[in-house]
Amino acid sequence: MAIEAFETRNGDLAQQIIKADREIDEAEVEVEEDCLKILALHQPVAVDLRFISAVIKINNDLERVGDEAVNIAERVENISIRVPVTVPFEYGAMAEKVEAMLRKSLDALVNLDADLAYKVCLSDDEVDDINRDIYDKIKEVIKIHPDRVSYLINLLFIARHLERIADHATNIAEEVIYMVEGEIPRHRKDILSPTIE
Question: How far apart are CA 14 and CA 20, in angstroms?
């Protein structure tokens, strides 16, 4: 919805996204409370403990994805009332990649598929590269249109919010790897090496 709002410069849709954030926040609290009850009442060990621990972290990442969608919506509200500035970059490609990463990370969770989770982790660098490319292009457009800096900065932040969603998708994938393999892959280049076909 946030991407649709951005691509159509739809301020009304952006407002809907902002209002929906409360539901995401409430769902996060509910899931966390359920996890804590399970920990207290059933005292899970081994695989079950890893599962509950991972779900608590994934729950937080999903809530943060909701926050990033709200951040995009707030930027859309700002730019929807201004005359557009053309930037030589298609945000749709970045948005599709980020959305695919998030979907795959959740599929990996549901299916406990570590291979798919590794693929999500490896996609993160591509999104980082796209974000850097957008930064460079916006910098160039600012030189041409210094009077439109406010609008262009909003575009820059939208790319940054998308990049953060990709980071959260990666976090979810790393938790799936932990659940399935018992290895914590964060900060481990040897585990997340590009050997997946």
Answer: 10
* Rounded-to-integer distance, Cα 15 and Cα 49, Å: 39
Plot region of 43 (φ>0 → left; ψ -120 to 50 → alpha; else → beta): left
Q: Which of 171, 175, 164 is nearest to 55 (CA)?
A: 175
Structure token digits, residue 61: 């990442």
Per-residue b/e over 62-93, b at no fewer than 16 CB within 10 Å? Answer: bbbbbbbbbbbbbbbbbbbeeeebebebebee
What dihedral angle (degrees, nearest 10) is formed by the CA atoms of 26, 76, 133, 144?
-160
What CATH number does residue 172 fall under? 1.20.58.220
Query: How many helices (H) does the chain have, and how many strands (E)?
Result: 6, 0
In a domain? residue 194: no
Q: Look at residue 58 and tell me if it is in a domain.
A: yes
C-alpha distances out from residue 133 to 80, 90, 126, 127, 136, Å: 24, 11, 11, 10, 5
**Structural domain contains residue 25:** yes
Using pLDDT thresholds of 50, 70 and 90, give the confidence band for residue 88: confident
- Domain containing 97 equals 2-181
Q: Identify the H or E element spanning 9.
A: none
Q: Tell me: the pLDDT tens digits for 9-19?
A: 899 999 999 99
